[in-house]
C-alpha cells in the first residue's frame, strides 16, 4: 500500500481544517488591483515581452478571473460525481465513510460559493466583462458521460493539482494581493482531504478491473484532458479579447498569435500539466498499473 489514508482520520482532519466563507472574504471586501493575483509560476505573464509591465499585470488579473470561473465550473461536476458515488453504496454500514464523502461534497458546494464571492469582487474592481468557456452544464454533461473511473482519475488529478498550486506557487510569494493568496491557501487546506478521499474513490472504482479495463478508463481520462485542452486554447483567446478591450488592440497579428500560443501553454500547465506530473497522482495511477502510468508520463510534457 502506497498510502495510509483512512476515512476516520480524513474526516477528523476535515473537521479541524474547516473555515467559513466570511473569514476568507467578507461581503464588502475589495481586491487590490495594484498587485498581481496569480502567482507567476501559473500566470506566466512576465515572459510576454510584447506587453508593458502594466499590461502584464492586467493580464495577470484576467488569468485570476479565469481561475475563479474555471474552478467554479470544475467543482460543479465534482459535486454531483461525489454525491453519485456515495449514493451508489447506500445503505452503507460504514457511517464514517458516508460522512467523509458528504462532507467532501459540502465543501465543494462551499468552494463554489467562495469562488462566486471572489468573482463578484473581481467584477466590481475590474470594471469590464471577461468571457469564459462553458457553460458549466455543458462541461458537466461531457465529463459525467465518461466511465466513473476516468472521472475519478481526472478529479484526483485536479485535487493534487490544487495542492501544488499553493505549495509550489503561492506559499512564500509576498507580492500577491493578500485576499487572493488567502483564497488559494484556504482552498489548499480543504482540498488536501479531498485528494485523499479521491485516492480511496479511485481504488474502490478500480478494484477487480483487468488491464484492458484500466486501459479503457485511462482512454476516458485522456479524452477529458483533451476536452479541457481545447478549452484552454479557447480561454487563452478570450483572455486576449478581454485584455484588448482594456488596452486596445495589439499592433501586430504576429504578436497576437504568439501571445495566444504562450498563454495556451500557461493554461495547460495551470490546469493539466501541474496535475499530470504530481507525484501523488502518479503514485495512485502507478499502483493501479505501471503501463497506464507510462501512458500518462508520455502525455505530460505536452502540458508543461
Ligand atoms: Fe474545491
Ligand atoms: Fe476538491
UniProtKB/TrEMBL annotation:
**Gene3D superfamilies according to UniProt:** Ribonucleotide Reductase, subunit A
UniProt-listed SUPFAM superfamilies: Ferritin-like
**InterPro entries noted in UniProt:** Ferritin-like_SF, RNR-like
The name this protein carries in UniProt is: Diiron oxygenase
Amino acid at each position: 500500500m502506497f498510502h495510509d489514508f483512512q476515512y476516520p482520520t480524513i474526516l477528523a482532519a476535515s473537521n479541524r481544517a474547516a473555515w467559513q466563507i466570511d473569514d476568507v472574504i467578507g461581503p464588502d471586501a475589495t481586491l487590490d488591483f495594484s498587485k498581481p493575483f496569480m502567482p507567476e509560476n501559473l500566470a506566466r505573464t512576465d515572459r510576454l515581452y510584447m506587453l508593458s509591465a502594466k499590461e502584464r499585470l492586467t493580464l495577470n488579473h484576467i488569468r485570476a478571473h479565469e481561475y475563479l470561473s474555471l474552478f467554479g465550473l470544475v467543482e460543479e461536476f465534482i459535486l454531483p460525481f461525489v454525491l453519485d458515488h456515495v449514493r451508489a453504496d447506500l445503505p452503507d454500514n460504514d457511517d464514517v465513510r458516508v460522512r467523509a464523502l458528504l462532507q467532501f461534497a459540502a465543501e465543494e458546494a462551499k468552494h463554489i460559493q467562495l469562488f462566486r464571492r471572489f468573482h463578484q469582487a473581481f467584477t466590481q474592481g475590474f470594471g469590464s466583462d471577461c468571457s469564459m468557456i462553458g457553460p458549466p452544464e455543458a462541461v458537466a454533461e461531457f465529463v459525467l458521460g465518461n466511465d466513473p473511473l476516468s472521472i475519478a482519475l481526472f478529479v484526483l488529478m485536479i485535487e493534487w493539482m490544487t495542492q501544488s498550486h499553493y505549495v509550489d506557487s503561492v506559499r512564500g510569494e509576498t507580492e500577491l494581493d493578500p485576499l487572493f493568496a488567502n483564497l488559494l491557501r484556504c482552498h489548499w487546506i480543504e482540498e488536501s482531504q479531498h485528494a485523499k478521499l479521491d485516492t480511496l474513490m479511485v481504488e474502490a472504482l478500480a478494484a477487480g478491473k483487468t488491464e484492458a479495463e484500466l486501459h479503457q478508463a485511462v482512454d476516458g481520462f485522456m479524452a477529458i484532458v483533451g476536452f479541457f485542452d481545447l478549452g484552454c486554447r479557447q480561454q487563452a483567446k478570450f483572455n486576449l479579447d478581454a485584455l484588448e478591450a482594456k488596452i486596445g488592440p495589439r499592433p501586430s497579428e504576429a504578436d497576437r498569435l504568439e501571445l495566444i500560443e504562450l498563454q495556451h501553454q500557461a493554461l495547460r500547465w495551470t490546469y493539466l500539466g501541474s496535475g499530470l506530473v504530481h507525484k501523488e497522482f502518479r503514485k495512485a495511477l502507478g499502483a493501479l498499473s505501471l503501463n497506464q502510468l507510462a501512458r500518462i508520463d508520455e502525455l505530460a510534457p505536452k502540458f508543461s
